[in-house]
Amino acid sequence: MTTILIVEDNQDFRMFLERCLNDQYHVLTAGNGIEALKVLDSNDVSIVISDIMMPEMNGLELCNRIKTDVNYSHIPVIMLTAKSTEDNIITGLKDGADDYITKPFNLNILKLRIQKILEWKADNHRNFAKGIEIAPSEITVSSIDEQLIEKAIKIVEEKMGDTDFTVEEFGATIGMTRGHLYKKLMAITGKSPIEFIRAIRIKRGRSLLEQGRTNISEVAYTVGFSPKQFSKFFREEYGCLPSEFIKK
Question: Is the pTM for the entire model greater than 0.85?
Fold first, then answer.
């Protein structure tokens, strides 16, 4: 179930939102930005819904922290506030907010905004699944996430034939813990680190076959698989064996 974090210092309103959304989502709550960061660190959150005016760390500061931290920058943020001046809207959007709703608001509008953001994330996953040949810039994410995907693809390409390349090494090279790397790649691409590595390798294998490399065993080892593994994963991805693909 999709996890949503509500950040609101007014306990009554926070509980109201939680009751309204917990029939569709797994809802977590925090009373300010500092509490929210602690929740984000220990949970896989898909969307943050945050008030602006809060003690200790307000919503704008929280949004800025989320959007500038590579561990969280993929998480969409919806800002809720009673302030409807143009300056506050501009500030929120500059800090990276993905959407902005002023109080009072129709609850159905909030639910629709959440649904649209989740659909947008699903579109990103489908775009990535179409093939690794798409440029990272074609995946609709923030620039910090775009840079991370570019780096991740480059790392896997450099380790293309290394059968001993592990997720731990992948995370260490990219500068993230295994847990944060898993959450990040799942959020942006819909793939776990293992699936991400495999997808790039299989795509490279297909490219080599298309270039006229007909020795399937040689191609398999080039992209870091045994011939048996390569045939299995290739069929899962493209619906046919490499030998059948060559004949097409």
Answer: no
